[in-house]
Amino acid sequence: MEKQINDANPSLDKIEEKREEKLKNYLAKTKNGFEVYVDMESSHASTHFAHHPKLFEAVKKAVSSIEANEEIIRAEMDMGEEIGTTDLIQTSDQDEIVYAKRPLREQYSRFVKNKSSRPTSWITIDLRKDGNIYNLYTSFVGRLTPSFPGGNFLSEQSREFWSNHALVWGSQEIVPGTETTECPW
User: Fold this and answer.
1) 49 contact partners, CB below 8 Å, separation of at least 6
2) What are phi and psi of 40, to 5 degrees?
3) Do residues 167 and 88 make contact, with C-beta atoms less than 8 angstroms apart?
4) What is the chain's mean pLDDT, rounded?
5) Cβ neighbours of residue 38 under 8 Å, at least 6 residues apart?
6) Sign of the CA dihedral 131, 72, 141, 179?
7) What are phi and psi of 54, to 5 degrees?
8) What whole-number distance in Å separates Cα of residue 30 and Cα of residue 123?
9) Residue 120 clears pLDDT 70, i.e. is over it
């Protein structure tokens, strides 16, 4: 994306740069010295941080143990103590399933209505390289999974995985009006 210069009022450019800087929060440095930031307005992690108070500090600790050598880093880590509850549950034909979109996401998520979240010490993080830094794309409490169908992480496994797993209904914010019992994928 090209940055446009405001010749008429260059101070507006400075204000916009400052606004963008404020949206990004410094998290930590990776084991090999890369700074990691999170944009609390656009990162999927922001919704998970709000739901799990221990997650932000756990992510900071986890980032410092990562050797960052790739453009995209996806990792799961056992933090050795309960961080929160995992909303990921295995499902069967007897479960009540509903689909809905979550904020800041394009794909529909699969939810189960008759199950509860479980405590866990596992977290997952997803870092994306941007020049000489990394941005936290997402982080959540629980194990690493394929993207929902239509996503790009382990897409060849996503339909099979998500046909017998779901997130616990009521555990995560959804976009009102997107609920359906018909599988959208």
Assistant:
1) 40, 55, 56, 139
2) -70, -10
3) yes
4) 88
5) 24, 25, 27, 45, 46, 135, 136
6) positive
7) -80, -10
8) 16
9) yes
CB count within 10 Å of CB 170 equals 12
Higher pLDDT, 20 or 87: 87
Phi (first) and psi of residue 21, to 5 degrees: -65, -40
Q: Would you state the structure tokens that stand for residue 37, as one six-digit string?
A: 């930031």
Annotated domain spans of the chain: 23-168
pLDDT in tens, 37-76: 999 888 878 888 988 999 999 999 999 999 999 999 999 9
The H-or-E segment that residue 22 falls in is helix 10-23
Helix or strand run (H / E) with residue 90: strand 88-90
Residue 84, pLDDT > 70, answer yes
Asked if pLDDT for residue 155 goes beyond 90, the answer is: no
